[in-house]
């Protein structure tokens, strides 16, 4: 991949990749479930992370048989997340400058399993405006590991999927990228190990997004 100029666009995951939101999302799930008298391990939520909230709740409902409607659980979990988030700036150090530098030579997009509301609350306007295209879970019927978000991002940027590089912290990012016909690079700023990222299809695994210039 190094020295390869075939890419004209970079698609970034958001949570755990560009922003340090995963601890807050996991804590929000735990808080909500405990409120409903469901004890769940930290690792169990971590393994589900990277998918949409709806998909996570569908999985949890099968396992724990709780009756609440998913739409209500989504809203309740979002409340817990916003409460934990407060006014914190959770963009990883150096990421804004890194994205600005890549913007000089590439079209750039976000493809996130979060909703548009959560994206807007989690980042500031100047950060949001860095991206040519933002695809949230609200824009598609199926989130990752389906390729739908990545293919829509490529379409909106008017580039071929093969010209896109996906960057993400979750196995679901790389499974989606493979299905979309895109190369992908993993980062270790989420909850997934190097081995898991490589096994899911990542061509390289980096410490963080700021190291991306090492491979493109």
Secondary structure elements and pairings:
Layout: E1 9-12, H1 22-35, H2 42-48, H3 53-64, H4 70-85, H5 95-103, E2 107-111, H6 116-122, H7 125-128, E3 133-135, H8 148-157, E4 164-168, H9 171-180, E5 183-187, H10 194-199, E6 204-206
Parallel strand pairs: 1-2, 1-4, 2-3, 4-5, 5-6
Helix pairs in contact: 1-4, 3-4
CATH first level of the largest domain: which class?
Alpha Beta
Distance between the termini: 6 Å
Which topology of the largest domain does CATH recognise? Rossmann fold
Low-confidence stretches: none
Strand order of the largest sheet: 3-2-1-4-5-6
In the CATH hierarchy, the architecture of the largest domain is: 3-Layer(aba) Sandwich
State the helical fraction: 40-55%
Secondary-structure element order, as H and E? EHHHHHEHHEHEHEHE
Q: What class do helices, strands and sheet pairing give?
A: alpha/beta
CA-based gyration radius = 17 Å
Give the strand content: 5-15%
CATH superfamily of the largest domain: HAD superfamily/HAD-like
Number of domains: 2
Mean of all residue-level pLDDT scores: 93
Largest sheet: 6 strands, parallel
Count the beta strands: 6
Q: What oligomeric assembly is this protein in? A: single chain
């Amino acid at each position: 991949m190094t020295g390869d100029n075939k890419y004209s666009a970079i698609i970034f995951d958001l949570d755990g990749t560009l922003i340090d939101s995963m601890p807050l999302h996991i804590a929000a799930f735990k808080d909500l479930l405990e409120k409903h008298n469901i004890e769940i391990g930290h690792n169990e939520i971590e393994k589900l992370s990277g998918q949409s909230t709806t998909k996570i709740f569908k999985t949890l409902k099968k396992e724990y048989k709780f009756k609440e409607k998913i739409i209500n659980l989504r809203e309740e979990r979002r409340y817990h997340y916003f409460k934990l988030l407060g006014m914190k700036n959770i963009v990883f150090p150096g990421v804004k400058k890194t994205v600005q530098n890549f913007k000089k030579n590439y079209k750039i997009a976000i493809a996130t399993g979060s909703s548009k509301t959560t994206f807007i609350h989690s980042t500031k306007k100047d950060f949001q405006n860095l991206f040519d295209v933002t695809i949230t879970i609200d824009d598609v019927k199926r989130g990752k590991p389906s390729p739908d978000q990545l293919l829509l991002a490529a379409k909106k940027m008017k580039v071929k999927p093969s010209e896109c590089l996906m960057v993400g912290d979750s196995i679901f990012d790389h499974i989606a990228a493979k299905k979309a016909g895109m190369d992908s690079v993993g980062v270790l700023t989420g909850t997934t190990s190097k081995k898991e990222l490589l096994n899911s299809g990542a061509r390289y695994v980096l410490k963080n997004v700021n190291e991306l210039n090492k491979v493109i």
